[in-house]
Specification:
Largest sheet: 6 strands, parallel
Distance between the termini: 88 Å
Helix content: 25-40%
Order of helices and strands: HHHHHEHEEHEEHEHEHEHEHEHEE
Mean pLDDT: 80
Number of helices: 13
Radius of gyration: 27 Å
Structural class: alpha/beta
Low-confidence stretches: 1-29, 81-89, 133-145
Strand content: 15-25%
């Protein structure tokens, strides 16, 4: 046995101090090291470093890697991230910027990003912009060096202008893939989602449609408007009117009331840019003595838990928020590794429920 190993406490076979672990009476005073893990798994410390650094594939067998992970769990071992970060020249910290956590979509997006970050040994600092979708003070102006990169929703793209100007790698979510300030973009196929909504309603015989549009100047909502117009072009259907609203139930209700009581033929369907707007639209219909979907069909966009809390349950486009967060974090890790990243567009699906039905009179 080497002298340096004796110094950390292994001792000999004649009753010397036992090898320190986090178990039993040593738990309060000893911290497991990579050497402990190597001894328990019967491998070298180099192998432990490869496995715990997620660099073992092609160099270490799967059973050996699992043995190392099992030993690490048993001993409560955690890699010395501070030392590793100094070697890598990274802080292993990413900033995730979203408009707010009042919308379940962004909470799920964070869950996905955090899960992917854990796989890479990266921490996530979450910054919900206090101003919603507009500019906000930079809370990290004096600590920019502690971040490796930024992942931001297009709806909060202006929240941390100073950080973006600091040269940190930026991955944009739900954003124009042609923008030049982002190292990568991860999008949902928003246009296809709106096309699915339009095809669904056209198939039910709807020809008079109102668009309850989010009153936010953001790429994702501009895409929805263009996609809806394109989907109806060349058909007998028409958007009889567009009403803009803030992304909340009350604003959605007021916008839907305007759409349903405005001049001209009453719409038989309301296409809403979000489930919160759709909830307001359903409320507006009830206040006006209309039945959903007998008198007016309503669709949403998101598939929040709210969609199945409504009665009737809401037809909406399901957006895989967690998958967006995961893809965004992986894209940032790829950028930090100096590798190219292709623009990503994740598929979305229409979930048809009972808030839509045949157009009145059909």
């Amino acid at each position: 046995m080497a002298a340096d190993e004796r110094e950390v406490g292994q001792g000999d076979d004649k009753g010397g101090p036992r090898w320190p672990t986090v178990r039993g009476r040593h738990a309060a005073t000893a911290r497991a090291t990579s050497r402990d893990v190597a001894r328990a798994a019967g491998v070298s410390q180099a192998t432990v470093s490869l496995v715990m650094g997620e660099k073992w594939r092609g160099r270490v067998s799967e059973p050996t890697a699992e043995a190392v992970r099992g030993a690490a769990r048993e001993l409560g071992y955690r890699p010395n991230l501070a030392a590793r970060n100094l070697r890598l020249g990274r802080t292993r910290t990413a900033l995730l910027v979203v408009p707010a956590l009042t919308n379940d979509f962004f909470a799920r997006l964070y869950t996905g990003a955090a899960r992917a970050a854990t796989e890479h040994g990266v921490g996530v600092v979450l910054y919900p912009s206090p101003g919603g979708t507009g500019p906000a003070p930079d809370p990290f102006a004096s600590a920019r060096a502690t971040l490796d990169g930024v992942i931001a929703s297009s709806m909060a793209a202006d929240a941390l202008t100073d950080i973006r100007e600091g040269g940190l790698p930026l991955v944009m979510l739900d954003s124009d893939p042609e923008r030049t300030d982002a190292a990568a973009t991860v999008n949902l196929d928003i246009a296809d989602g709106m096309h699915q909504v339009a095809r669904h309603l056209l198939g039910l015989g709807h020809r008079r449609i109102a668009h309850i549009a989010a009153g936010i100047d953001s790429w994702t909502f501009r895409v929805r408007a263009r996609a809806l117009a394109g989907a109806l072009q060349g058909t007998a259907a028409a958007v009889v009117r567009t009403e803009h609203a803030a992304l909340d139930v009350h604003a959605g209700r007021r916008a839907a009331e305007r759409a349903l009581t405005g001049p001209g033929p009453r719409p038989t369907a309301l296409i809403c840019d979000g489930d919160m707007l759709a909830a307001g639209a359903c409320k507006a219909a009830r206040r006006l003595g209309l039945r959903v979907p007998d008198d007016v069909s309503v669709t949403g966009f998101d598939d929040l838990p709210l969609a199945t809390a409504l009665e009737p349950e809401l037809t909406t486009v399901r957006l895989p928020a967690e998958a967006v967060g995961e893809a965004g974090m992986r894209a940032l890790m790829t950028v930090l590794d100096g590798k190219p990243v292709e623009a990503t567009a994740l598929p979305v699906d229409l979930v048809a429920r009972r808030s839509t039905g045949p157009a009145a009179g059909n």
